[in-house]
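Hi support team,

I've been running sequence recovery on a batch of backbones for a student project. Most finish fine, but this one hangs at about 90% for roughly twenty minutes before it completes. I'm not sure whether the input is malformed or the queue is just slow. I've pasted the structure tokens below so you can try to reproduce it. Let me know if you need the job ID as well.

Thanks,
M.K.
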């Protein structure tokens, strides 16, 4: 137990509000709730929003007698963003922990993140590395977030670098933004991007969350729709560089960042468009200095190397490999 936590237990209001939306989460919610109650840090409330569940989720929640648990009910399903915002509005804590009903907190999760934010008052939010588990709870991998805080804003230009259930955020910052229901399935990515625009953010390298991967995960539902929402987040990111893309330019931007291994180097028209787009990104960031210039350009180079490597694998003939290598290195790297 950290000494600085002793004062937290004397407060009338909880220091942390753990927000957990649930919709038909009967299979995992008991384990998720228990993992919160088993935290080494005790000064929290657990706000559970039942989003119109038709299974026994509500009954399982009510089976817990812990006074720190608060239940909010949506009579009909209002969606994940609405439920998260409802929990935020009803949170009393200085900090809000975002948590999904199918994931698991490791015992020191809240303690380590509270201590970080208490000791670093200039940071608005902190996440952590995650252990990936399958629908049965078996280990299938891990994601270690290694980047230092000063590069996270730039990394978010290229992809989402935070795990939803791993986030602890200052309430006074979070309530400036909330989740945008118009960005369903990418509302978290947009939120992190907005917060990082004017606030410091961080990830702890420690594995503090077990993140469940299964067929019903929000992140695996309706892939096409998710991609459309990610494009909208990219559009927001591009606006920081005073770039307001056409529909085709936005599609090319998505291809460059998310489908670069599928790009055929022999498609000269697309390659030319992507080359010009890459130059525009570099020019605008160099001019406006919105993102870390060195790391920004490094990421763009890394993308073009992925294009090169993917095309090399498709061409077994050595001469073709050499021709492609020379062409892409000369043009893009």
């Amino acid at each position: 137990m950290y000494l600085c936590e002793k004062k937290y237990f004397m407060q009338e209001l909880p220091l942390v509000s753990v927000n957990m939306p649930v919709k038909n989460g009967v299979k995992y919610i008991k384990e998720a709730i228990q993992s919160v109650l088993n935290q080494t840090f005790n000064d929290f409330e657990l706000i559970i929003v039942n989003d119109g569940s038709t299974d026994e989720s509500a009954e399982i929640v009510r089976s817990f007698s812990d006074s720190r648990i608060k239940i909010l009910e949506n009579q009909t399903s209002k969606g994940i963003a609405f439920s998260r915002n409802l929990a935020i509005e009803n949170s009393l804590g200085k900090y809000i922990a975002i948590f999904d009903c199918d994931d698991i907190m490791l015992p020191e999760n809240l303690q380590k993140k509270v201590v970080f934010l208490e000791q670093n008052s200039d940071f608005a939010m902190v996440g952590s590395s995650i252990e990936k588990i399958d629908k049965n709870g078996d280990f299938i991998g891990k994601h270690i977030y290694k980047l230092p805080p000063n590069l996270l804003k730039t990394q978010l230009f290229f992809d989402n670098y935070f795990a939803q259930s791993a986030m602890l955020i200052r309430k006074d910052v979070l309530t400036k933004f909330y989740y945008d229901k118009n960005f369903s399935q990418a509302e978290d990515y947009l939120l992190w991007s907005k917060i990082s625009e004017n606030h410091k953010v961080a990830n702890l390298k420690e594995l503090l969350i077990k993140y469940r991967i299964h067929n019903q995960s929000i992140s695996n539902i309706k892939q096409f729709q998710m991609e459309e929402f990610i494009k909208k987040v990219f559009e927001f990111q591009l606006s920081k560089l005073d770039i307001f893309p056409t529909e085709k330019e936005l599609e090319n931007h998505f291809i460059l960042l998310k489908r670069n291994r599928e790009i055929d180097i022999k498609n000269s028209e697309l390659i030319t468009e992507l080359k010009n787009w890459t130059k525009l990104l570099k020019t605008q960031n160099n001019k406006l200095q919105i993102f870390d210039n060195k790391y920004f350009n490094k990421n763009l180079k890394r993308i073009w190397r992925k294009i090169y490597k993917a095309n090399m694998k498709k061409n077994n003939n050595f001469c073709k490999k050499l021709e492609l290598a020379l062409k892409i290195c000369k043009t893009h790297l």
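--
Follow-up from support: It reproduced on our side and the slowdown came from queue contention, not your input. Confidence is low (pLDDT under 50) at residues 1-10. No action needed from you.
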